[in-house]
Amino acid sequence: MKTICRSRDELTLRARCAFLVVAGIVYAALGLSAVAVAQDKQDPFQGALFPVELVMGNQAAISFTSDQRDATVVALQRTQSAVVPWQLSLSASGERLLALLRQPRVDTEAALAEVKELLRLENRVKLEQVRLLIDVKNILTREQQRKLEAIRGLQ
Q1: Rounded distance, CA 86 to CA 63, Å?
Q2: What is the DSSP letter of 44?
Q3: What is the DSSP secondary-structure string of 72-126?
Q4: Domain boundaries, the chain
Q5: pTM of the predicted structure, to 2 decimals
Q6: What is the pLDDT along the chain (155 residues), one digit of tens a residue?
């Protein structure tokens, strides 16, 4: 009886681990945008780009014009329309991977192929998010960028 319980506990633990791996991959793809990364203390862009939230949250302080706001909205809409289908595909791929990982014997090739697909989709999402950050920076004047750098330094 103990063997069965231990086996079930082991399967439950493995299922939880598999779920956490898949959830981590999906979370990274869906929730960890370049905008969030740019705000992190380990900024891979070393402060070269400005998160949309920083720009939009400081419009008055940087004298953000209505034309700049309109251009930012257009860039956001373009990014969102490009990214949403990939995010939905990421969710579906994550579900497929989880189903594969929950099997008593995991088909390694199928699981790795699904991970490869998840990573491909995640890279497309991140590419579009970085494109958005570049577009936002290009919308800003050099003076606005200096003001945002100062504001960011205070946070």
Answers
A1: 35
A2: T
A3: HHHHHHHHHHHHHHHHHHHHHHHHHHHHHHTSSS--HHHHHHHHHHHHHHHHHHH
A4: 2-154
A5: 0.67
A6: 444 444 445 444 444 444 444 444 444 433 444 444 444 556 677 789 999 999 999 999 999 999 999 999 999 999 999 999 999 999 999 999 999 999 999 999 999 999 999 999 999 999 999 999 999 999 999 999 999 999 988 76
